[in-house]
Amino acid sequence: MTRRASTLAAEEKASPALVRALAASEAALAACEAQLTQARATVERQARDLAALQLRKPRPDAPPTPVPPAASVAADPAEIAAAHAEIESLKADLAALKASTSWRVTSPLRSVTGLVRR
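Predicted structure:
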């Protein structure tokens, strides 16, 4: 029984059913506060992850990366196959990230952040 419920019961201002209902409501409130704390921690973690991802992508105003001459590009089929496999793996990772609940939950945060940065 919580402090408010026990105080109320001690003062005999409420029926036992009302005291039990108040205790149950306070327990539900505590559970909701715990979920809110966990959700905030998740949003903060995802914001850090997003910031790290944004640091890795090139800025729009950055000069383009020079393309090496065709003679210096390796034409080894094994290297090309490995590069394609890595690209597909990265695409799958990105798709999984964007399909995750955490990505959808933080969508409003990313929208607001984008508006603030403009």
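Summary: The first helix runs from residue 3 to 10.
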